[in-house]
Amino acid sequence: MSLPALYIGHGAPMLLDDALWTSQLSQIAQGIEKPKAILIVSAHWESAPITLSNPLAGTPLVYDFSGFDQKFYEMTYNSPDASALAAKVTALMPKTESVAQSSRGLDHGAWVPLKVMYPNADIPVIQLSMPTHDPEKLLELGNRLKPLREQGVLVIGSGPIVIGQACEFDYSGTQACRVLKEEGYRVILANSNPATIMTDPDFADRTYIEPLTWEVIAKIIEREKPDAVLPTLGGQTGLNLAMALFERGLVGVPGTPELIGANAESISTAEDRDKFKKAMIEIGLKVPESGIAHNMEDALEVIKTIGLPAIIRPAYILGGRGTGIAKTAEEFAQLASNGLDASPIREILIEKSIAGWKEYELEVMRDTADNCVIICSIENFDPMGVHTGDSITVAPAQTLSDVEYQIMRDAALACIRRVGVETGGSNVQFAVNPANGDVVVIEMNPRVSRSSALASKATGFPIAKIAAKLAVGYTLDEIPNDITKATPASFEPTIDYVVTKIPRWAFEKLPGTSGVLGTQMQSVGEVMAIGRTFPESLQKALRSLEQGRLGLNCDPAEKQLAQISTDELMRLVDIPTPDRIFIIGELLLRGVSVDAVHEACKVDPWFLDQMSIIIEERDAVKSSNPSAMTKAAWKRVKRVGFSDAQLAYLWGSAESEVRTAREAAGVIPTYKTVDTCSAEFAALTPYHYSTYEDENEVRESDRQRVIILGSGPNRIGQGIEFDYCCVHASFALRDAGFETVMVNCNPETVSTDYDTSDRLYFEPLTKEDVLNVIAAETAAAGGKKPKVIVSLGGQTPLKLSGQIPVDLIAGTSPASIDLAEDREKWNALCESLNIPQPPGGTAINLEQAMTIVDRVGFPVLVRPSYVLGGRAMQIVHDRDHLTRAMAELSSFGSLGKEGGLSAERPVLVDRFLEDATEVDVDAIRDHTGEVLIGGVMEHVEEAGVHSGDSACAIPPQTLPRWVVEVIESYTTAIAAALDVRGLINVQFAVAGTNVYVIEANPRASRTVPFVAKATGVPLAKVATRVMLGSTLAELRTEGLLTRSVLLDSPDTVAVKEAVLPFSRFPEVDTALGPEMRSTGEVMGIDVTFGRAFYKAELAAGTVLPTSGTVFLSLADGDKPAGIVVAKRLRALGFGIMATPGTADYLSRFGYMVDAVVGKVSEGAKITAVNLIASGEITFVINTPQGRGGRTDGEAIRKAANVHRVCSVTTVEAALAAVQGMAEQIDHPLEVKSLQEYHGR
């Protein structure tokens, strides 16, 4: 939405006496919206530099005319100060143009028409004089001023991926930015996450990758002057920031940007537990019996009335953080205290527990005309007591009668109206007592939520896109349905299939966690599957998880359950864990009745009965074999979701044999379309799911097709960085004229938006399902086979590369991929290139591993092959530890149920390089052999901390130039030797003057988005085109491949920092190691490393202190660097406490500490744990010993985590933090958009 640009002739003073001229000009002014500021552009016949008039209030006018009446020389126009506008205009000009600041005021060409149009002189005005000797340049400069006319909307993103707030907000925020730009708004985005496609500079006019704090957002508002702020697509982060800004009078009040999507009162009513409870009672809706507390005294009074068990729910929190069910007085005291700490306003709702009730959600949208629609109903498989984000959920709701649904629908509409959300979407959660049907309202989210992403993908209704349009004034009946083109958004979606969502957890990466699910969300990702029935969609979803399960049991991993007695399984099924669904399946297989299982776990009997259909079908075909199956039998077993791999296990056959027999019987999947309307209208958007019916809905096309295999569910080690690459691939190929086909099963991502690609298949990423899609696409293209991209979605599609016909793979060949993964072949390659690597070998059993360590010595790095995120990786210091590590990797340990060890999946045992600096390189090679080095990243933490958990900087900050050149040369040689066609990531360790190669991955890495944001080079797009045959030279000519901005701005430094999930798991040691544990990442960018690192830490939630006392406890090897840390801390005025060993060492070099703190393990009265709890320590630097001796350190790190005291566990991070703290004191944080860094 833009204000008009007015073209007015030079304002001669005598025109003020012309009645016709003044009346017409006045009418023009009254007919347009009153501007917030005015820029008068005067194109002068001169070649002088660009010049601005004096912006200060009270600057005298210029009377550069003569011969007129004296009154014209006495006229004034005292407009307000226009310095902010002057700064904006200057910022919009190219760096190559200097902007002069004149002392002159407005001339008569400016002030004469303004006296008529805006006689009150209450609008800031400035005059811009532009040279006209070059008309093309004049037009280019004028085009740069266009953003001044556009109404600006600041979209607040959700920040890094954390538990409870994942890439569903990447999806929703991206949709919002796209639709607002299409509507003509100037979009300003604030988000700290470099991994999301949302922060690509193409999606907003100004993209600020800055920390998401209210202070930083205030700086952005001050700089950009947006007309409105949209916080409802940024998750809980967006809402909390909006309220913080509102409370400080910076948004949502007269004279400040308007809050759109939901106003402050609506947010407060929904998020403040007490207000929400009163509002629901006011409109006659039931809520569980409850009370509000703001301190422990209040809490103890409330619990006397409510009684135990009770649930504690903090206000303004995300993913159930701080919630819990208390069954005893001791548990209540602990949970109430935790809940108060978790709430930013220290408010908790103490509610009578309704654990065991059924849980439902409704997605609702409302517009300013009070049109309301229910987008989707969602039912939880798990009863109340498990956070909805950790529950299996099903859409539409399966067990409600129509009367019950209508009651719940009416309640949801009443709720959204009372809360006051009138320009967007909301999620309302209900609980139903299975004994008597009582319905209570649990809570409401006045924003797009995690469930909104699921509902959007389940129905095809683009909730975030519609919400953004509603926020800027549209009504539902004015917005067309993208999929049907025949119905408006006010039509409620209906679906004729069943959608199942299953979460994915990462307990194996967080030793010390119980693995028990509760009211606080713990999952890190999720999958979604679509089927015609619940059994079909459930089995498809289970095999989508990529955790070695092929469906509802009937796979090798079920042998774990076969060893457990039925009585023990009945006890275990009552405990909500990720494995409960499989325990239920085993119990039903053993003949335990549905009623008995329901009584034990409280899962609704309808779901259990549906699961029994799967068990019955298994029994019906178990004695058959592939050649004996009739076409009807094949269809029956496939319609309840059995995979070929499950049937192969059941019959003792090979999966390929099952597939061949099935296809010979004429049984192949058909693909149905997600259409929002149960086929009542034609669907124009090809969004497909498989089933086994008769009619196939894939449209024919003769264009060249490219299938992009996505990355599957989010998990630690494989997050949205890979979805970013897949989306970029689709965009790049569509622009180049290819027809793009996306295959993925993650409902949270941009890749599964129906308009990201030409066609979307919401399918599991398994051999069977991918081959089925390839066959369907080949048939639709008249037999012409598509190309398949496997190297952008992480390890998920890469593991499928050897199971897809070689001639279909785009880019690097499967043979080259295997060459990099096969340790013996890789060693030979490195030896042939004379590139050093740590000594080591491969083993498939303990005996082979012991032989390797006899040769290379301890410590060694032990890691499985073909995994991502350092899965099960360990630094091993002795034989006992090696024995434990190998046991974990085999049988049914951490990786056992995913296949264990074999010749195809060996364990890698390498000498661990202590005290080495780790370096990452992302590069692209084309078929001519040219290699583009995308970025060289130096890690802050030394080797031994997984690269995904380490901060890293680009360009390198401490590496000598010759080392960088060696690294680049090694990378180029490796890429050539592997015949890479596309992306390659190579990891190095620098120890002294030696550069060792650790590994090479001929695929996209998690650092690709970060490098792209830092350099301005769209690596994923460039690599995709290279994979399809373009050369780097051609892409330069085309303009897609641009020069890295870091080459021209050497002072710019970008720092990527990991975001760790420890606040959710206080029982977990926060010490970093070789297994990745971070859930997301943030980026800091500035002119020095210290400032960029400070921004990155702040964005990650680590608020580095500016004063107070620091606790130091250093491992022996870190103590020399500790001298530097102590020296710099003293220079900054910090107090220092230390353990006896660290204090003694520092004292030898003249650095005395303020206090020596005793050890917990020795029973000292004053320990770091006590001092952290009492608030006397503001920063903890604790580096663990290499081999054991971690008891005290672990207690200290856990205490810092629980009490939210900033801590670091490596001396390198400590040095970087101190540098950041020093620079922040000298140079307060400043904000700058990515477009400015990129010179755009």
Descriptive notes:
The protein has 1240 residues and is an alpha/beta fold. The chain contains 42 helices and 42 strands. The strands form 8 sheets. Strands 18-17-14-15-16-19-20 form a 7-stranded antiparallel beta sheet, with helices on both faces.
Q: Give the fraction of residues assigned to helices.
A: 25-40%
Count of individual beta strands? 42
Order of strands, widest sheet: 18-17-14-15-16-19-20
Strand content bin: 15-25%
> Low-confidence segments, ≥5 residues, pLDDT <50?
892-901
What value does the Rg take, in angstroms?
Answer: 32 Å
How far the N terminus sits from the C terminus, by CA atoms, comes to 22 Å
Q: What's the average pLDDT?
A: 90
SS field, number of helical segments: 42
Shape descriptor = globular
Tell me the structural class: alpha/beta
For the biggest sheet, the summary is: 7 strands, antiparallel
How is this fold's topology laid out?
Layout: H1 19-31, E1 38-44, E2 50-52, H2 83-92, E3 99-101, H3 108-117, E4 125-131, H4 135-144, E5 152-156, H5 168-182, E6 186-190, E7 206-208, H6 214-224, E8 228-230, H7 235-247, E9 258-259, H8 264-271, H9 273-282, E10 290-293, H10 296-306, E11 310-314, E12 324-326, H11 329-342, E13 348-352, E14 358-366, E15 372-380, E16 393-395, H12 402-419, E17 424-432, E18 439-445, H13 450-459, H14 463-471, E19 498-504, E20 525-531, H15 534-544, H16 559-562, H17 566-572, H18 580-589, H19 594-601, H20 605-621, H21 631-639, H22 644-651, H23 655-664, E21 670-673, E22 687-691, E23 705-709, H24 720-735, E24 739-744, E25 759-762, H25 767-780, E26 787-789, H26 795-798, H27 814-821, H28 823-833, E27 840-843, H29 846-856, E28 860-864, E29 874-876, H30 879-889, E30 907-911, E31 917-925, E32 931-942, E33 952-954, H31 961-977, E34 982-991, E35 994-1001, H32 1008-1015, H33 1019-1027, H34 1032-1038, H35 1045-1048, E36 1053-1059, E37 1080-1086, H36 1089-1099, E38 1109-1113, H37 1119-1131, E39 1135-1138, H38 1140-1147, E40 1155-1156, H39 1168-1173, E41 1179-1182, ...
Parallel strand pairs: 1-4, 2-3, 5-6, 5-8, 6-7, 8-9, 22-25, 23-24, 23-26, 24-25, 38-39, 38-41, 39-40, 41-42
Antiparallel strand pairs: 2-4, 10-13, 11-12, 11-13, 14-15, 14-17, 15-16, 16-19, 17-18, 19-20, 21-22, 27-30, 28-29, 28-30, 31-32, 31-34, 32-33, 33-36, 34-35, 36-37
Helix pairs in contact: 5-13, 5-14, 6-7, 8-9, 17-18, 18-20, 19-20, 22-23, 24-33, 36-41, 37-41
